[in-house]
Specification:
The chain is 40% helix and 23% strand. It has 10 helices and 10 strands. Helix 3 (99-109) packs across helix 5 (125-142), helix 3 (99-109) packs parallel to helix 6 and helix 6 (159-171) runs parallel beside helix 7 (189-204). The two termini are 36 Å apart. It binds adenosine-5'-diphosphate and magnesium ion (MG). Residues 18, 21, 23, 41, 43-49 line the site of adenosine-5'-diphosphate.
Length: 258
């Protein structure tokens, strides 16, 4: 799937230290638009720290490029505005808002200018709000969240749909690079298939998708390429079929458990 053009997101030598612990050690990888990069590795390997490093949510060494421009020094919110966003292992949304309102908030988040305009010109507000509602409903429906759920609060919908919602809200009005942390955690069966469909849909839209996932059947099916992290370092990188028979990878997963 990956085109031979320049990567949309490239990270080089990312290192994260928590006190004396080096959680991520000189990590480098890249991902193109319209590509799904899978990241796997044992618990505590440094996968989530890698996402925190890319989005500048923790102090780190190394470099990050988005669309060919170095963005290493930019704060998290500016990266988000440029279309580089992440989801978290735990669900994160406004519990007191409906799904539709959550989606509106997510879409307005990156459009502070239009929000400012609607506040400055109150007579335009209702029209702006109607447009925002329609766009938010469209966003939810497009990614597989049924109309029936739009008026509910996140706590009142099925857990599998909550996992979908986290990804959809991170995408918002259109992310360019999405870092998705264990989307299928705690799900299975039909919910996992809906998540797979969502990730493939994002790839089709040209998003650079990076996904951490423990469900091997899911990641091996949808990822174009896989990076294996172990003890903060890159242990292997390659096509899913190659990773599945890589000796070092099998050792990291199976040898240690034995
Ligand atoms: N905020 C933190 N402070 C101190 N240590 C942390 C922090 N976050 C993660 N760690 C440690 O860093 C290592 C990597 O954690 P993490 O990136 O969450 O791994 P993974 O997502 O692969 O399970 C682990 O040893 C973890 O305990
Ligand atoms: Mg993690």
């Amino acid at each position: 799937m990956a085109e031979a053009h320049q990567p949309l997101l490239r990270v080089e030598n990312l290192t994260v230290r928590y006190g004396a612990l080096t959680a991520l050690n000189e990590m480098s990888w890249q991902v193109a638009g319209g590509e799904i990069l899978g990241i796997i590795g044992p618990n505590g390997a440094g996968k989530s720290s890698c996402f925190a490093a890319v989005t500048h949510a923790v102090p780190r060494d190394g470099h990050v490029w988005l669309d060919g421009a170095e963005v290493t020094g930019l704060p998290t919110y500016q990266l988000a505005r440029l279309g580089l966003r992440r989801t978290f292992q735990q669900n994160a949304f406004f519990g007191e808002l409906t799904l539709l309102e959550n989606a509106m908030a997510a879409m307005l988040r990156e459009h502070s200018t239009s929000l400012t305009r609607s506040i400055a010109l109150p007579w335009q507000e209702s029209r702006t709000r109607r447009n925002a509602e329609a766009a938010a409903a469209d966003l939810l429906s497009t990614f597989g969240i049924a109309n029936d759920d739009h008026g509910k609060r996140p706590g009142d919908i099925a857990y599998g749909t909550q996992r979908l919602l986290s990804v959809v809200l991170a995408y918002g009005s259109g992310a360019r690079a999405l870092l998705i942390d264990e989307p299928a955690a705690g799900t299975g069966g039909a919910d996992m298939q809906r998540l797979a469909d969502l990730l493939v849909n994002l790839r089709k839209r040209g998003v650079a998708v990076v996904v951490i996932e423990h469900h091997m059947d899911l990641i091996m099916t949808i990822a174009d390429r896989i990076v294996v992290i172990d003890q903060g370092r890159k242990l292997a990188e390659g096509a899913p079929a190659d990773i599945q028979r890589n000796e070092a990878v099998l050792e990291a997963y199976l040898g240690r458990a034995a």
